[in-house]
Design brief:
It is a multi-pass membrane protein. This protein is mostly helical and 420 residues long. The chain is 80% helix and 0% strand. The chain folds into two domains: 213 residues, Growth Hormone, Chain: A; 203 residues, Up-down Bundle (Growth Hormone, Chain: A). Helix 1 packs antiparallel against helix 2 and helix 5 packs antiparallel against helix 6. It is globular, with a radius of gyration of 21 Å.
């Protein structure tokens, strides 16, 4: 009997994903809090997401081709190395009290560049490490374990950020630096160590065969992933549903505003709020890993996204910490159902020789829903206020579900998540 725990290289990749995700989440907690602390601007918070998305958009096609023609392990290690550079730059700027909004945005561009390679490398590498019969369980396990890291890492990042100044005040005789800067520096330093561990785990994976390199790929080859998704109505519907639902309904960029100005809390509360969606996702992910969805996958996907929109509205209307935390946890639980169904569909129905290009296009959709969604949230909050922006986004998500149910009937009719 095949078991996931017997797949050694898959476990190495899982370890790398845990360390890398934890580092990334801690980094984003400190980065978001510092940006809002420096500017008090929802627009600037939104720009952080936009400048991360633009490199991913521009590099999608060449990144997908690289992943299909080169060692996916080394490309993943390269992307993690770029993130090390970001963490180191933020740490040194914080220690030197030289951090500015411009520096944060510049390093966010580099972070977006790293993600342009990281996401297709990860998505294309996973199916080569497990048998197809274990793929649905692997996707659910990946997502649940990643979300577990997202539960702990932001909370730890918030605690380190808040506790750092107090610790440094006791050691202030060592260096004459602002104690407040050390909270963020501690977060970035821990992130750097985790990223180095992730690189080591990735490079320990045994090499897989690499397809013959094309000497000079043409436009048709670069855009093959776009055409492939376009011609698969179920896959197109699932990916675009996530894009527009999270683009409209995501509230992550506004969490520093909610934590400081609406819930009247500090960076510790921000870390917990960022952890809340992952907490809901962990339980659902573990359930799906043990009991995979076997019937009515399309209906479950659409219902889950509708629940995501309703919970987003609930978060926007919350005025105290625990109702807000609960609403965000529900968004994470609903999103986990969507993630497992969508990623399983993409990986099962894509030939291995095209996984890099298809995963690259998929990563742009995901990046648009997340990073571009952060910009949309910031821009809308500048016009409607943070509460109005979140509630309007949740209502928009519900409208998207109704439209997709009508426009993609093949998606609504999709029954199983087994190999075709």
């Amino acid at each position: 009997m095949l078991r996931l725990r017997d797949q050694a290289d898959y476990l190495r990749l899982l370890t790398a994903r845990i360390a890398g995700t934890s580092a990334n989440q801690m980094l984003l907690v400190a980065l978001g809090w510092q940006m809002y602390d420096l500017t008090r601007s929802a627009w600037q918070l939104g720009l952080v997401g936009l400048v991360q998305f633009l490199p991913a958009l521009l590099l999608t096609l060449p990144a997908g081709h690289l992943v299909d023609r080169h060692d996916r392990r080394r490309l993943l290690a390269l992307s993690l190395s770029l993130q090390c550079t970001v963490a180191l730059g933020l740490m040194l700027a914080s220690l030197g009290a030289a951090l500015s909004a411009g520096w944060i945005l510049a390093l966010s561009v580099l972070l977006g560049t790293a993600r342009a390679v990281q996401m297709p490398s990860l998505q294309a590498l996973t199916p080569t490490l497990v048998p197809s019969s274990l793929l649905a369980r692997a996707v659910a396990t990946n997502s649940s374990v990643m979300q577990a890291a997202v539960v702990l890492a932001p909370a730890l990042g918030g605690v380190l950020y808040g506790a750092g100044p107090a610790v440094v005040r006791r050691l202030q005789t060592l260096w004459r630096l602002s104690p407040e800067s050390w909270g963020a520096a501690m977060v970035y330093g821990v992130s750097l160590l985790l990223l180095l561990g992730a690189i080591s785990a990735v490079l320990s994976i045994r090499p897989r065969p690499v397809p013959p390199r094309a000497p000079s790929p043409g436009w048709r080859e670069l855009t093959a992933g776009i055409r492939f998704i376009r011609d698969q109505p179920v896959m197109l519907g699932a990916i675009s549903l996530d894009l527009f639902a999270v683009l409209l309904g995501g509230a992550t960029a506004l969490l520093p505003i909610f934590a400081r100005d609406i819930l009247h809390s500090g960076p510790e509360a921000l870390g917990l709020l960022r952890s809340a969606p992952a907490l809901g996702a962990v339980g659902v992910g573990l359930w799906l890993a043990r009991r995979p969805l076997r019937r009515r996958a399309g209906v479950w996907l659409l219902v889950a996204v509708a629940l995501f929109g309703l919970a987003t509205i609930g978060f926007g209307l919350s005025r105290s910490f625990w109702p807000a935390f609960l609403a965000l946890a529900i968004t994470g639980a609903a999103d986990m159902v969507s993630v497992v169904i969508r990623q399983t569909l993409v990986q099962l129905e894509t030939p291995d020789e095209m996984r890099g290009r298809v995963s690259a296009v998929n990563s742009v959709f995901i990046g648009a829903s997340n990073q571009l969604g952060e910009f949309e949230s910031g821009a809308t909050a500048a016009l409607l206020g943070p509460v109005g922006a979140v509630v309007a986004g949740g209502l928009g998500t519900l409208c998207v579900v109704l439209l997709w149910w009508r426009w993609f009937p093949a998606l609504a009719r999709r029954d199983s998540l087994t190999p075709p």
